[in-house]
Amino acid sequence: MMLLELLKAFTIGVCASVPIGPTAILVLQKTLTGGRKVGFTTALGATVIDTTYSAIAVFAVSAVSDFIFSHQNVFLLIGGLIVCGVGVSMAVKRICMDKCGNVSAGNTLQAMLCAMSNPGAIAVMLALVALFKIDVQQAPVWAVIPSVALGSVSYWLLFTAVFSRVRRAIREETLQRVNRVAGIIVILLGIVLIVRGIVTL
Questions:
Q1: Which of 22, 45, 77, 137 could crosslink 114 through cysteines, CB 3.0-4.6 Å?
Q2: Which residues neighbour 4 within 8 Å (Cβ) at sequence distance 6 or greater?
């Protein structure tokens, strides 16, 4: 049944977005400091990567996945450096709370880079596709992939809506501290990725 397969794809999109990592912390920080729109446009970067990985998983493009896994040490090292850079930017940036933060493509790109930093993410997507047993005979790929994206977008809409409400009750000084802590956590996650990359050399 096509509707069931699309519902499975939607659920995969939600499940792929839920794990807490550098991307989620980045989206949280952007939401708290800039508001719902800024947080959501940042999260769209993660959606792009999740959707791309779902396409790889559904199409079973083994050559691409094999390339990623065979060069995962390089991805981990470069990704770790990128994540550290994002963390430093978060930690040192001075917050100026506006009623409406600045929406920019740079935020989306930051989230894309964070999401790409962990080559294990494609393994998660492959596992989810296998777990839910998407049947491309029942639902065409051109409908499955957008359903995954819709699941991811729906999760981030809820995520940013919830935390944008929390933002209103937090003072600017507190947000500044949250910003620094979030930046330090992201830096530490970046260091973990770099260490994993070195270990796999």
A1: 22
A2: 138
Alpha-carbon distance 13 to 48, whole Å? Answer: 11
User: Which of 15, 34, 187, 178 minimizes the C-alpha distance to 117?
Assistant: 187
**Average pLDDT rounded to a whole number, residues 85-100:** 67
- Indicate the residue type of 118: N
CA distance linking residue 26 with residue 130, whole number of Å: 29
Distances (CA, A) of 26 to 72, 107, 171: 23, 9, 19
Q: How many whole angstroms separate alpha carbon 160 and alpha carbon 42?
A: 10
In SS3 terms, 154-193 reads as HHHHHHHHHHHHHHCCCCHHHHHHHHHHHHHHHHHHHHHH
Q: Which residue has the tokens 């999260």?
A: 43
Amino acid letter for position 150: L
φ, ψ of residue 162 to 5 degrees: the values are -65, -50
pLDDT category at 47 given cuts 50, 70, 90 is: very high
Between the two ends of the chain, the Cα-to-Cα distance in Å is 46
pTM here is: 0.75
Amino acid at 4: L
pLDDT tens digits for 98-134? 544 566 788 898 889 888 876 667 777 777 777 787 7
pLDDT tens, 65-77? Answer: 566 667 777 777 8
The one-letter code for the residue type at 110 is Q
